[in-house]
Amino acid sequence: MATLRKRKGKWQIQVRRQGQPALSRTFILRADALAWARTVEAGMDRGDAVVDTRPLRTLTVDNLLERYLGTVTVLKRGATYETARIKCLRRTSLARLSLVAATPDKFAAYRDQRLTEVASATVRKEMALFRHMFRLARQEWALPIPSNPVAELKPPAHGKPRNRRLSTAETGRVDAALEKLRSPMMRALIRFALQTGMRRGELVKCEWHHLNEASRTLLIPETKTDTPRTIPLSGDALATLSSLGTNRQGAIFPVTANAVMLAWERVRAWAGMPDFRFHDLRHEAISRFFERGLSVPEVALISGHKDVRMLMRYTHLRAETVAARL
Asked: Given this model, what pLDDT does residue 210 score?
């Protein structure tokens, strides 16, 4: 039964049924309040599930981000990077929206505005985070959110793949810059990255017991895709490891990922290549593997790519190199 009362110039109506949560709404017009009550009562008569959405009025997107950070992000291998991303999201006007007001059009407007400020890859990651967060809120956190406001939104298009390669002259400048590094181990790490195409996080977590010199292979136990892989090593890669000496205990490269980035910043500055990122070494290595005649399955074994399309985004063959093989 519906109970109607006027309060502070507005009409507040409440619908109660035995065994069902009480539902209430406030309207400016009395007719709108009565119409809403009839709709709710008709749904109850049909046996439709009654959902109390009042918690959505006091909870905000920021509340969900805070919970996601404390229960989901902290368990991820990339927690440091995602924590920074969530802190940025919590400072936006989107975070201040109540869950009632968190509608698809709000997230679409945010997406379009962000695309004018940052790279599409950044926006894709942010929208993927929101999509997963709302799915958890509905399915596991028992919040009465009627639908995921991000689920049907079109994600930003992939940005153009980087096609930055090292020229012969630049390779020489990098070699010269590496010699300026005080740490022989850091010089070896950067050379090994170019010889194997390994990611920065994979390099700093490899240990000597993962190396099998007899078979010329290296086990990479922790990868971005959570699938360990064993890669073959070239003669140059083995020689790089041999240059590190005979004390083969613990980590092969006992440094942090941040230390690697700081060292690379110095190297590319000395080499006069401010636009060449450390991750571009992986692109360069994979492209070289193909230029040497390795097949797609062989390169995928080394790189760890499961999707051939993504592998192709990392591959930029030089026309002159292919022409020489014809």
From this structure: 95
The residues that bridge with 218 in the sheet, in sequence order, are 211, 231
> Which CATH code fits 168-325?
1.10.443.10
Distance between CA atoms of residues 108 and 233, nearest Å: 47
- Confidence band (pLDDT; 50, 70, 90) for 252? very high
Cβ neighbours, 10 Å, residue 245: 9
What order do you get walking across the sheet with 23-27 strand by strand? 2-7, 10-15, 23-27
pLDDT score recorded for residue 52:
56
Q: Report the phi/psi class of residue 23: left, alpha or beta, with left for phi > 0 and alpha for psi in -120 to 50.
A: beta
Domain boundary assignment for the chain: 2-51, 57-139, 168-325
Please state the separation of Cα 179 from the chain's center in Å.
34
Please give the span between the terminal C-alpha atoms of the chain, in angstroms, as a whole number. Answer: 84
pLDDT in tens, 151-185: 889 988 877 777 788 888 999 999 999 999 999 99
Where do the H-state alpha helices sit in the chain? 30-46, 55-58, 61-71, 79-89, 104-114, 120-139, 168-178, 184-196, 200-205, 235-242, 257-270, 280-291, 296-303, 308-313, 319-325
Long-range contacts of 133-137 (CB under 8 A, 24+ apart): 133/64, 133/65, 133/68, 133/72, 134/64, 136/68, 136/72, 137/64
Any idea which residues carry the catalytic annotation?
199, 224, 279, 282, 305, 314
What burial class does residue 289 get, using C-beta atoms within 10 Å of its C-beta: 0-12 exposed, 13-18 middle, 19+ buried?
A: buried
Phi, psi of 167 (to 5 degrees): -80, 170
Quick check: 228 and 221 in contact, CB under 8 A?
Answer: yes
pLDDT, residue 12, reads: 85
- Packing angle of the helix pair 184-196, 280-291 (nearest 10 deg): 50
For residue 110, give the 3-state DSSP assignment.
helix
Question: Across-strand partners of 212?
Answer: 217
